Structures are given as structure tokens and as C-alpha cells.
Amino acid sequence: MARQAAYDRTEVLGKALELFWAKGYHGTSLRDLETALDMRPGSIYAAFVSKEKLFDEALRLYAVTSRGILKDTLARAATPLAGLADHIRNLGRVKPGTASSRACMLVKTLLETPDEDPVLRRTAERLIGDAEATFAAVFRAAQETGQIPTDTDPELLASRVQSEIFGLRTYAQRTDVVDRVAALADDIARDIERLASV
Amino acid sequence: MARQAAYDRTEVLGKALELFWAKGYHGTSLRDLETALDMRPGSIYAAFVSKEKLFDEALRLYAVTSRGILKDTLARAATPLAGLADHIRNLGRVKPGTASSRACMLVKTLLETPDEDPVLRRTAERLIGDAEATFAAVFRAAQETGQIPTDTDPELLASRVQSEIFGLRTYAQRTDVVDRVAALADDIARDIERLASV
DNA sequence: GATATATTTGAGTGATCGTTCAAAAATAAG
DNA sequence: CTTATTTTTGAACGATCACTCAAATATATC
Q1: Does the pTM of the predicted model rise above 0.90?
Q2: DSSP A53-83
């Protein structure tokens, strides 16, 4: 006994994400969103409450998707370390003009958001922390399989990888650096592989 | 035969830089600037033409200052590689709530700016390129003094260091990671020192 | 087909955006 | 002191901002 929404929520969120990712939170206006989502202001607000909440939800979608990509690569790899190295080499395969040439959306949000922001900054920091925890788990797995020494610190290794990825993907947002990014990714991947105790 | 301006241009630019760095280009309004600079709109526009040009000039001031800090550290160090390592350890000495806990302003601008932006993005990319050229020069100097092998690629090493710094400083913008940042910086610095051929 | 419920529309809200400009104020030179 | 030149002021501009809401529209259920 009611009308059903004309849109698929995840699909709409994907479009919002694309726009926010490209133009940033402040750089994206509601008029931009109306066009990209093909929705009128009333519908957008009925569905997502506010621009901020819409961004927040899009950011979470981004994190879920990114985590999925990492997990897939890890699952396909022979060892945890090899999976991580593969993941980084994949990040180095940049196609100009596509999402692959854009810095991490979490980083963009971290940098665009004031320290005190009670919503977007908190979400971004939490999701970044989640990602780092995943990396730490990978290194712990590598310890358990004897791939790396047990006297290494999985948390420190995780923050190092996190930082390397921050740098790599930020570097990738520069124009005309495609080859450089691939070489950089390979460099980083090799360093990770070298962690393996022979 | 005229009135003289009541402000010191560089001082004013420093205040604008501080604000833009903290809040971003889009996140900073002219009313914010009027307060921070203690100038009325007419004076601001007479002096800097537009918000965009003011940001552009503040960004250049940032780059000059940053380069100065790097050069100073390099000049004080025993070798090029040691200077670079010192510089990175300095970047790791983060004081929460101060500029040291903020990501690189050039990176922030790179990420906030659309690919096609004809002014701010271009300036940011050019200044980033300049920084990388400085790093390359350091590695070339290290080669000439025999500190690192001549079969290494100074440009590739420079982009790696650039990327590491991007990552480190972005990481430092997270809250409650002070110790982690210092450990991370030390890690990176040690890797650079390890490049030295015995 | 009538009813109840949910969604969509789009004109309109007040606030704030970056920017302008004529008038007022200040000062160096004669 | 007068004059010429420059800077500063701050009210006001049109445009755009995020957002609201009453009316129109659509549909599941009976």
C-alpha cells in the first residue's frame, strides 16, 4: 500500500561517491548532485537527510568497496605478503582520467576536514583505522605462517604500509606521472617481499 | 606623495596561509580571511586581486619556506643522505595542534583541486615538481661523493622519497598518532641511510 | 475504482558566497 | 596648508549555497 522508490540506493550512492571523490565535499554543490543523481532536492533530502550524511554514507561505501578489493587480492595470493605486494602493484596500474588516478578518498576526506569535525573527520579516521587493522592482520598471518620473523611489530609494519599507500596514491593524482607511479608501486612491493625471511 | 600600506605583505600572506592550510581553499571564506588578516574586503582585493590569487601566492610562500627548511637541514648535515634522513626525522617530530601535525599544503591543494584547474592545480603541481627536483639533486650529490652507487636512478629515488613524505605527513594529520609518526619517520630515515654503500 | 501510504516535484527560503566601488581617510611632496 | 596620490572602509551586489515543504504523482492493497 505505497509507492516504491524509483532508484537503487547503492547505485545512487555510487554516483554521489564518484562526484564527491572527484570534486571534494565543499567543491560539490547540491545542484551538482541533483544533476549527477538525477534527483530533485526533495528526494535527495528524503533519502539522505543532509549533504553531510550523504557524503558520510558514500564514504562508507567507498571503504567497503576498497576493503573488498584488498580481500579479493589477498585471497587469490599464495601468501599474505605476496597478496599485499600484488595489491600495491595493482594500485600502481593507473589509468589517467579514471578513478585509479585519484588519491584515496579517505585521505582526501582526512585532509579536507577540520580536526574538530564531529562527523566526516571521525568517520574518515575510523575507516582509516579499520584499514590499518586489516594490514596488521595480514602481517600477523605472515608471522603465524613463519613468513616473517616473530620479533617484527605487525602494527608498525601496518602503519608503514598504510603510509606508503597514502603516498603512492597521492602521487598518482599528479598528472603525467603514470610510468613513475608503476615504478614506485613496484619499489614498494619489492620492499614488502623482502620482509620475508628467505 | 601618497599613503603607504598599513600591513606587511609577507606577514599578511603568512596569516592567509595559516588559515588556508587549516581549512582548505573552499573551506575558507572571505569573512574568515577578513578576520584573520584584519583587513576589509576592499583592501584585500586591492592587494591580492582575488581569493584564488591570494591562495596562489600563499601557496608559493609555503613552498619557499618549506624549501628553506630542507636546505638548512641539508647544509647542516655531514652528507647529502644524512641531511635527508635528518629532514625526515624532523618531519616525524609532530606537535599536536600545530602546523607540524598538518599534511603538506601542496598535497592538500593537489587533492582539493580538480585536474583541469588552470591556476591552483597547476601551481601545486609545479611546486611539487620543484621539490622533487631538489630531492633528485640530493641523490645526484650523493652519487658524486660516492655515497651511493652510480647505477641508481636519482629521479626514481627522488620520487620514492617524495611519496614517502607525502605518506608520512598525511599520516601525521590523523589524531592521536604522535608516537606512530615518529617511529614511521625513523623507519623511513633508516631506509634512506641504508642506501649508502657500506 | 477507492483508499491509504510513500515518493517526487520544484518553486521558494534565508544565509552566505566572492566581489565591487564610491566615499572617507591618510600621507608624501610642494 | 594645499594638492596629488594611495589606501582603507563598509555597505551593497547578484549569484549561489544547503535546505524546506505543500502540492502533485504513483502504487500496493482492498
Answers
A1: yes
A2: HHHHHHHHHHHHHHHHHHHHHHHHSSSHHHH
